[in-house]
Design goal:
Layout (H helix, E strand, L loop, with lengths): L4 H16 L2 E4 L2 E9 L7 E10 L5 E7 L3 E12 L2 E7 L2 E3 L4 E4 L5 E7 L8 E8 L3 E10 L17
Parallel strand pairs: 2-11
Antiparallel strand pairs: 1-2, 2-3, 3-8, 3-9, 4-7, 4-10, 5-6, 5-9, 10-11
C-alpha cells in the first residue's frame, strides 16, 4: 500500500489526537488525562494531575499510587487554614457513585517525591493508582511544558513544594 503525503498527514493528526486525549477505564472508574508539568532536572518533587469519575453504583476509594519515576507518591490536597493556603496529605480519597474528582494545581494532586528522572516535556511515565474495589490501574502520565494548557478544566497556577 502506498501512502501519499496527505494520507500521512491525516494519520499523524489522528495519532496526535489519541496521544493528547488519553483516557483509562477500570470497572466503573473513568480516568481522564493524567498529566504533569515539565520541571528542571534538579527538581526533587513533582506532581501528577488527572480526573477520576466513578460511573458505577458503588463507592470506591483511591488508596494511593506509585511510579518508577519517583521514590514515593502521596495523595495531597490544598486547604485554606488561618488565612493561608496549606498542602496536606490525604490517606485515602473516597469516590461516591456519580462523583468526579479533578486533580489540578491548587487542589487535589499526586505528589511525586524524590524524582528518579527529570520530567521533560513530551515524555510520558507510568503511574499505578491503587483502588479499594477497582484494584491497581496503570495510566500513562503526559509531561507537558509549563506554558502548554493541561486541559480545559485545569487552572494555570502551580504550587511548588
Amino acid at each position: 500500500m502506498r501512502f501519499n503525503r496527505f494520507s500521512l498527514l491525516l494519520i499523524g493528526c489522528a495519532m496526535a489526537q489519541l496521544v493528547n486525549a488519553h483516557e483509562f477505564e477500570a470497572g466503573s472508574l473513568h480516568i481522564d488525562h493524567p498529566w504533569s508539568r515539565a520541571l528542571p532536572p534538579v527538581a526533587p518533587t513533582g506532581a501528577a494531575y488527572l480526573q477520576i469519575s466513578n460511573q458505577g453504583e458503588q463507592s470506591d476509594t483511591l488508596l494511593g499510587a506509585d511510579t518508577p519515576a519517583a521514590e514515593k507518591v502521596e495523595i495531597h490536597e490544598h486547604v485554606h487554614a488561618d488565612g493561608l493556603m496549606k498542602m496536606q496529605r490525604v490517606d485515602r480519597l473516597e469516590l461516591a457513585p456519580g462523583q468526579t474528582v479533578l486533580f489540578k494545581p491548587g487542589s487535589y494532586h499526586l505528589m511525586l517525591f524524590n524524582l528518579k528522572q527529570p520530567l521533560q516535556a513530551g515524555e510520558q511515565f507510568p503511574l499505578t493508582l491503587h483502588f479499594d474495589r477497582a484494584g491497581d490501574v496503570q495510566v500513562m502520565v503526559n509531561v507537558q511544558a509549563e506554558d502548554e494548557p493541561a486541559s480545559s478544566n485545569a487552572d494555570s497556577g502551580h504550587m511548588h513544594h
